[in-house]
Design goal:
This protein is α+β, with helices and mostly antiparallel strands. It has helices spanning 5-16, 22-41, 44-51, 54-61, 65-78; strands spanning 85-95, 98-107, 110-121, 124-130.
Length: 131
Amino acid sequence: MARLAAPICLLALLLAGCGGGGDDKQEADQTVRDFVKAVNTRDADTYCDKLITKDFLEKSTFATGDKASESCKREMKAITGLHIRLVRIVSTKVDGDNATVTAVLGRAGQELKQELKLHKEDGDWKLAGSG
């Protein structure tokens, strides 16, 4: 069960409810779109290696380096029956290397407004958790 920690932690945060330049705003929004697509297609390589920060990856898998990535990928592939949809992006605020995207996500007939925290890492916006 502990092996499902990374994707489940982020998904639980996102689904349970628990101002910069135009390019940064668009790129942050695209990261959220890419996240939804990766979850729905169980694209573990994209999710674990490209869409979440190293810090979030390691904290959520309780591992470091390659072991964190491997654990995340196993966990992501093990999730079944989960489908989320991006209803709309409400707002995006960029502050340096940090961004907050407020989005409405749908799951199982419900729509929930979520605040997604992003951080710019190696030049790309990546999910760092949710508020």
